[in-house]
Specification:
single chain, 350 residues, mainly beta, Chitinase A, domain 3, 2 domains, 7-stranded mixed β-sheet, 6-stranded antiparallel β-sheet, 5 helices, 8% helix
Length: 350
């Protein structure tokens, strides 16, 4: 994405993300045991996980010893045959993590149920070792991962902090999926125009954007709801899931689009909004809009990258975007300083 540093705030699932972000997986992590509820019994080396999906699970480590290999299992399958997870999806999930130090002994280290901030995972950027438990499972499934102790030397090689002692366990409850070519529902109530670009709706596909000829761009930020969503208003600090296309006003050339990315065509993008991580025109133009909206943004140079690009090939001048706001997900709250006396979940993002 060419909208400055666009990062997902991930409060936990640290082991999975740390490994998936590397070019290689430690050799002794490459042979996971995977068993699926409904076809075979779960591996009996996994802890007992119970409770209803959508609420924090109960985890019993009694009589269990930390494993020396990765083990993955589906504790419960969700319902909904049309909502199966694909390998290019972005998924929204709740995660609870434990550090498993000895037989029957484990300590909870993270819980998105406590922080109130689920995570977003881009499966297309994760290794098969980690995604295989999720692929072809329905939304609403609960998956448990157990990881062996990580070698400190391997952690250092991967640029990660020194690992905590013992194995780790992550229980993943899948809330939502965002797949290829996904767009907001509804019909456009306006195409823009009147001195602004016009946008034709191509059904569930990329928008067709036309810059008006012989027309100067507006000097101020313009935000036009082409489709007004029915979801909650976007708040600063949330993680957005969007489809978008961006072009320069001066020549009508597309410089960035989720629809055109090699290897991930039509896969939505994710980023934090209203926190200075994207251009000012996005922060000011998207905050306050409703989830489920398709928006036309016309952004003046001062709220984008300037009249002249800082680097060759970068967009310049007034920019035009059409953005489908698929979802807005709360981010983890900042960690409280030690000794502050305030409680709450630990939200240590990476």
């Amino acid at each position: 994405m060419r909208l400055r540093a666009a990062a997902i705030a991930v409060p936990c699932f640290a082991v999975l993300l740390a490994v998936s972000s590397c070019s290689s997986i430690p050799e002794d992590w490459r042979t996971p045991a995977f068993l699926q509820t409904g076809e075979e019994e779960l591996d009996d080396r996994l802890p007992e996980v119970s409770g209803k999906v959508g609420k924090e699970p109960k985890v019993d480590f009694s009589g269990k010893t930390p494993p020396q290999e990765q083990i993955t299992g589906v504790v419960e399958q969700g319902d909904g045959e049309n909502e199966l997870i694909r390998d290019s999806d972005i998924i929204q999930a709740d995660v609870v993590e434990y550090q498993w130090t000895a037989e029957g002994k484990a300590k909870k280290t993270q819980s998105t149920y406590e922080s109130g901030a689920p995570i977003l995972l881009n499966l297309g950027q994760m290794s098969e070792d980690l995604t295989q438990g999720m692929i072809n499972q329905p939304v609403g499934s609960r998956i448990v991962y157990a990881f062996p102790p990580q070698d400190p030397a391997q952690a250092q090689q991967m640029g990660q902090p020194s690992p905590k002692p013992g194995s780790s366990v992550s229980i993943l409850d899948i809330r939502e999926r965002y797949g290829e070519a996904e767009v907001v529902p509804g019909e456009q109530t306006t195409n823009g125009g009147d001195g602004l670009p016009t946008v034709k709706q191509q059904g569930h596909d990329r928008p067709d954007i036309t810059i008006p000829e012989d027309t100067d761009p507006p000097g101020e930020l313009e935000t036009v709801p082409l489709i007004e969503g029915e979801g909650p208003e976007v708040e600063a600090g949330q993680q957005l899931v969007v489809q978008y296309t961006g072009m320069q006003w001066k020549d009508g050339k597309v410089f960035d689009s989720t629809w055109d990315r090699q290897g991930a065509e039509g896969v939505p993008a994710t980023f934090i909004i209203g926190d200075g991580q994207v251009i000012e025109g996005w922060d000011k133009g998207l905050v306050g809009q409703k989830v489920g909206s398709r928006l036309l943004l016309v952004i003046p140079p001062g709220m984008a990258y300037g009249e002249k690009a800082a680097q060759p090939g970068s967009p310049e001048g007034t920019l035009v975007f059409v953005v489908d706001v698929l979802d807005a997900v709360d981010s983890a709250p900042p960690e409280q300083p030690a000794g502050s006396g305030e409680g709450g979940g630990s939200g240590g993002g990476n």
